[in-house]
Design goal:
Length: 61
């Protein structure tokens, strides 16, 4: 019997790594109130937004 969850997890991780690989050179500026962070990788921006969404869902639920 094939471990389908393991295969699906491996496929998702592979897709994430491909996405990260293609976006390593893309940079953006992030402005938060009085601070501006320049030349932040887009991958870090997406990861931070995802983690903030997880934390807000955890604390509001």
């Amino acid at each position: 019997m094939m471990p389908w969850k393991l295969l699906a997890f491996t496929a998702v991780i592979a897709l994430v790594l491909v996405f990260v690989g293609f976006n390593l050179d893309n940079r953006c500026d992030i402005s938060i109130a009085l601070f501006t962070f320049s030349d932040v990788p887009v991958v870090i921006t997406i990861l931070a937004a995802y983690l903030l969404g997880l934390l807000s869902a955890f604390f509001l639920a």
